[in-house]
Amino acid sequence: MTAPHATSVPFFRPALTEDEISEVVACLRSGWLTTGPRTKQFEADFTTAVGAKHAIAVTSCTAALHLAVEALGLRPGQGVLVPTMTFAATAEVVRYQGAVPIFVDCDPVSLNMDLSAAEQALVALRSDATPLDRNLDVVGIMPVHIGGLMLNMDTVRAFAAAHGLWIVEDAAHALPAAYRPNPNASWRRCGEGTADVTCYSFYANKTITTGEGGMAVTDDEALAARMRSMSLHGLSQDAWNRFSGGSWDYQIISPGFKYNLTDIASAIGIHQLRRAEILRQRREFIANRYKEAFANLTAFELPPTDSDRHHSWHLFPIRLRLEELSIDRNELINVLKSRGVGTSVHWRPLHLHPYYETSFGWRPEHLPIASAIWERLLSLPLSPAMTDEDVDYVVQAVTAACNEHARIPRNTRTAA
Ligand SMILES: *Cc1c(COP(=O)(O)O)cnc(C)c1O
User: What pTM value is reported for the model?
Assistant: First the structure.
């Protein structure tokens, strides 16, 4: 009988305190459970935190992305540039509107969308190099800051302006995060006028959590009003306004959705947001420990850093050098799991999923960088709730696994 491993470090554990717990209890005692005063406060605090004019709290980042593309008028016959290296949500909201995601290849180091590949994707639409309909009207671009390492949004905005595109930023990993286009420029936070709409996730394993939740921010009053209305059935005013002194009456402006965040969730979010930078610093500390500890391992490449980026460190994605290992990525995941270390993969690129292959004809060769690199990707545990002992344990387990499964066994190598 094999006993379960004495130590185990899950891929992620949320970092909650008594502040979140007592705020939830106070919310329950208050008698107002759905969208109300705590959600209003969470939204107001959020605009201050990221430097945006309007914030709409919703049930998920997916809901925020959907509201954003709906408010921007996305419709069938249109196309949107979407990185293939992202989570399902970024592309599926484009499909919700009947429009088509035009997948873009990634940078081989940062894994973020490569803007020269975006340019090529636009050129390819006029040639045989794409499986997509040549008549698509390309209207938008949806950058994703993978792991919280921001793209240069000045460059993205210039690209969008040159091609007449709107920008919906999938910032599911990027809170808090910031960038500067060069060392002499001032810092700009993700959400601080970086896109037409910026969308955040408060899913259980994101940088801050409300269990499930999301936020859409914008500086555009009309987009904000449309998203707020459509987040609640397309009504002219929300329940809190109606029951807290406003009129009982409402009008349906459009067939909307049911995406409003509850006050129970916002009670958690208010306190998570206050600690967002402290939690980030803990993740950065762990990321630096990993970088030091793995500096001499040849089995994989480390995630990049950049002095012009304030990195949220949501993920620690390593890129395996498969030629150095006698096992593949999936086998390494199992070896680490047997030692009690939880890992994950971000992601199988969207163009390699059956839905996009069969519906749109995507093939691996259309996006060669993402197709090759995803076999090498592995995300190590990284959460602010990890103790120093957890970090040491992961370092030892990963080092041992790589040495034991080195293609050229360690002890047969000639000493340098
Ligand atoms: C998690 C994630 C989402 C979806 O967030 P939800 O809040 O679960 O809807 C969207 N995009 C990216 C890149 C993500 O990692």
Answer: 0.95
